[in-house]
Amino acid sequence: MRVNRCVRVCTRLIVLLLLTAWALLAPPPRLLAAGAPLADDTVPALGRAWPVGLRPPVLRGWEPPATVYGRGHRGVDLAAAPGTPVRAVAAGTVSFAGRVAGKGVLAVDLTGTGDPPLRTTYEPVTASVEKGDEVAPGEVIGTVDATGSHCTAACVHWGLRRGETYLNPLSLLPPWLLSRGPSRLLPVY
Prior knowledge:
It comes from Streptomyces indiaensis. This is M23ase beta-sheet core domain-containing protein. By secondary structure, the protein is an alpha+beta fold. It is built from two helices and eleven strands. The radius of gyration is 20 Å and the shape is elongated.
């Protein structure tokens, strides 16, 4: 009887370990918000932190325009209260920190991402860094401004470009940062 019980417990533990490994190694779902594609295969997932918060709600996803001047949403809007710290998603060099059309804008050229480099943008922000500063992943580079947002709720607009081509900034984040919630283990009966 003890052998059968031991076999059952061991089998359940092995199944639990396999399910956990599968959950950690499985590819992420291909959609995140409002039907927007989750990732762009031309962008390396080199991000190590969300720009704001731990897993901020995506208020509006990336909607690439059909033409260069067409309608679309050239970034993602992340819920963030005024004063929230804005962090560098990956290592890079600040290429712009100032105001554009009355909004605080910050741009960071990402290190080792080719020529032209990938550039992340954040607005509306009050920068705590200056043009030419080197930033590390997760480093605070500014705070969310109280005004200047195009969102109906407080948010930060996070963009990504290579040259003149807009890309989905969520592509910079690895799948484990994009998951919808904490990992959950199944009970062992």
